[in-house]
Amino acid sequence: MIFFKSIPLCFLVFCFVHLSAIGASPLKHFCFSPENYTAESSYGANLNLLFNLLYTKVPPSGFGLGSTGHAQNQVNGLALCRGDVSRQNCNTCVIGASKELLERCPYSKGAIIWYDHCLLKYSDVNFFGQIDNKNKFSMTNVQAVENNPTLFNEKVHELLSGLSNEASDANPKFYATGEVQLDTFTTLYGIAQCTRDLSNVNCKKCLDVAISELPNCCDAKRGGRVVGGSCNVGFELYPIVGT
């Protein structure tokens, strides 16, 4: 069983049952803009155009961004699918995410939503290329590691630091997964991914900050993630991808 936390707060918010992202509930969402648009406005029409653009651009490569409209009515957005997700499942996730945002953040000029298979973000502010440190949360496995938690934490940091380097170093998908055998029966799995509007340097910076925040939520836990608007890292004692 997994619980969510907002960073840096350590209050448990709600329980997440591990499910396929297709047809599943969102992991988290934020309606982060203080500004609203009105029904039948140009901004609302441009937001719908943006969603249509992302449906087309994202699934072939797993990532896409774009802007629609001009001046105060311009909408900027991106969507990212997890690196192993199929084109079909990516498309399904992005379409579902856009519909869910319209329901959960009606008339908000900026919002973001995460599923296990994708994230979708839009704003009236051009955020491309900038690390999003505001929209972030953590997920924690409530079960603690029983044997040598200090060594386990070290192995988590070692694995994820290596994946941070791999994902940010000339990797076209800004995505890396890996595993390390802890003992005969136990394997530690890790994942790291950035949105591809970031530079290599900012991807590395984003991932390293996320890794540094894991002790706040997931110290000596059997699994955990730090998930943000620009990058995410996670570890589990079961395979993370392919689910």
From TrEMBL:
One of its GO terms (cellular component) is extracellular region. CDD domains: Gnk2-like. PANTHER family: CYSTEINE-RICH REPEAT SECRETORY PROTEIN 38, CYSTEINE-RICH REPEAT SECRETORY PROTEIN 38-RELATED. Residues 25-127, 133-240 form the Gnk2-homologous domain. It comes from the Eukaryota. PROSITE patterns: GNK2. This is Gnk2-homologous domain-containing protein. It comes from Prunus persica.
